[in-house]
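FYI - complex with beta-D-galactopyranose, inputs then prediction.
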Amino acid sequence: MKLKPLVQAALALSTLVIAAPAVNAAAQVEVLHYWTSGGEAKSIAELKKMMEAKGVAWKDFAVAGGAGENATTALKARVIAGSAPTAAQIKGPSIQEWGGEGVLANIDAAATEGKWDSLLPSVVTKVMKYQGHYVAVPVNVHRVNWLWVNPEVLAKAGAKAPGNFDEFFAAADKIKKAGLVAIAHGGQPWQDTTVFESVVLGVGGAGFYDKALVKLDQASLTSPTMIKSFETLAKIKTYIDKDAAGRDWNLATAMVINGKAGMQFMGDWAKGEFTAAGKVAGKDFLCLPAPGTEKAFTFNIDSLAMFKVKNPEEQKAQLTLASAVMSPEFQEVFNLNKGSIPVRAGVSRAKFDSCATRSMDDMAAASKAGGLEPSMAHGMAIDSAKAGAIQDVVAKFMNSTMTPQAAVQALAKAAKTK
Ligand code: GAL
């Protein structure tokens, strides 16, 4: 992320500036996030409520744009200006990148008091720590390899809920014939990549996904299996409506909710939209593992990284925020709204619906059987430069007549981005 010289200069400058009497940022947290859809806004509102109940004011720094496509730019600008927010939604390997810039705060005090080491899986704590110290707090676990289905649309079209790609395309054909949109999609690079990674998982299995999209093995990236993945993606394109370009993911989900479309590939933040619309899992909508991915689980863990703040009151409020996020009360209410599942141990599953409990069970099973994989499309697997280059290739494939053969070559090259 090559911010270092700029950040250091800005930090030095801000130290000079605060020689003037500091504004009293007493008991306030400013939190940058991109949770702006209906379900997401309800989820983050719970944190705001909880902080206010603890006497901490909430300054909302929301930057719209799915998967944080605009949030990172806004965050960089603020950090370079020497005025980082208290916390920001940053996840996966990016936490290490920000840690390397020297701008993240040590929140070990909250972690020790809350016994985080014993409540979180070690794969998660590793990501939340920079050089052995906690700098971020995890919020949830999202599963990415889902297919969201409107059962009424299936019934109208005489189609069956699909388990593999043959069944998926058979269902898509029937929905299309019935005059409805088979696949709801928003033509944005991150959404294209979300579909792509589920297709790779379905076509090649978890072992292949891991070699290709996590380890970035060149032979796998150019293999016949990857060519087949792009062929499958090309076929999927033919079932997307002509107005998809630029459409936000939640508007695509709304098409499934309203019965205009039959199915959507999307992580379970989509469930937050169904829930916010009063729809019931298993009745009004189905959550199926994306075709051919039943035994695998691609995870996407949201977290709030904490920035170095100078005012002692704000530092205290920052630790209060970190502790609140890890509390069982927050993890329950947030995830009920967000569509995800709690990341920490010790939260009752009683209130969670069938999609969430399936997610919990499938995650445990995949973890045992070796099918638990980090989501590449959602910043869990590889560094941001490589992920960005791969996203560009997939988006280009979705929006042009690029052949699968050309795509795999471009993909292999993108994976070498430094
Ligand atoms: C994901 C993020 C989710 C959700 C989604 C759409 O990357 O992890 O929390 O916000 O993007 O913006």
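Residues 353 and 386 are 36 Å apart (CA to CA). Residues 143-299+359-414 form a domain with the D-Maltodextrin-Binding Protein; domain 2 fold (CATH 3.40.190.10).
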